[in-house]
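Fig. S4 source data, part A: sequence.
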Amino acid sequence: MIAEIISIGTELLLGQITDTNRPYIAQKLSQFGIDSYHQSIIGDNYERMLAEITVANRRSDLVIMIGGLGPTEDDLTKSVAADFLQQPLVDDSDALNKVVDWHQTTGVPMAESNKLQAKYINGGQAIKNDVGFAVGSYYQNPDGADFLLLPGPPWELEPMVDKYVLPLFQANYLQNQVMRSLVLRYYGIGESRLETELRPLIDAQTNPTIATYAKKHEVTVRLTAQAETEAEADALNTDLATKINEVGGEYLYGYDDDNSLAAVTNQAIQDHDFTVSVADNFTGGRVFATLNPLASEAGTYQAATLPQTPVTDTKTATVLNETVAAEQASDIVLSITPDADNSELAIDDTAYHTEKVWFSITLAGHTQTFERTLARDHASNTESAQFIALDTLRRTALNLPLLERK
């Protein structure tokens, strides 16, 4: 089987951005034994795009078009492909609702062209976009090459390919093979650091394959294995996950796509029947708000108040938390408070600030205290503090050591 990859975008031709999508797709194709003899970049021009896919249709079995699925005038990919296949574009109702709901929720007026993002080729299949608005489109052509249309932003394309496109390849282009994925989730280590530590395993990968993704506050690793049965594929993933976690396992907090640090933290607390009090003078209650909705029963979590005592060192932060712990009936008491020496924030909350924050946690009369220096805008700093607090609660509930970020 032969696939052809066409990247769409005048900005690619002008060198304004680097095309990382074609190498990414090419690697995935090779894993499935799908050859790719031709790859190209075409600007946002209807006639040239049509000419390119006409040639690709004659010499390939699968035409992959990347980019141009958005709502602007130069986003022509869906229209060109639909015209070539002589099929109309139709709405994916879930995607359309997502676009409309976002505009209504944010109060941003919606141009009619935004609805184009929710369209796919009639007779084909819409491919869900978990990150953005523009759905992909997969069309099996009875009279020529199949067509696969993917979004241009790599942070949208890569998860779409791994989660939704690869299973399509498995179902339609693999013989007597199944494919299974395992997602590992890490907090407290950056993508570049984790990837560096995993480099020997990444360089040696064959089956399963390893893909790392950086998210705002965590890193995920997706393992994808092929085998004759699901059990065999799962076993391959499990064996490789064991090797990966020999390197980075101290930062592993969970598995699966549909998971979060908040969910795992809540589960750990509830599994051990702990009650928790949170005294928060920094995040504006974000930590408590994250915990409270997921409480297993009323009273699992309590908001506490810290004395207005300036915190400048470990001793002061520890004494404050132990004072709160003495007043609370909770098993675990966590306090989050800014350092007294933090410079006063500017009115512009988007400006970068260096803010030192103290975290102190007490369980069974034992208190651990540490500080973290956060250096982004205040909104991002408070969000980072929220995740630090969650991981501190999780590790305390599971009797795991508190770790510095790598």
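Fig. S4 source data, part B ends here. The chain has a mean pLDDT of 90.
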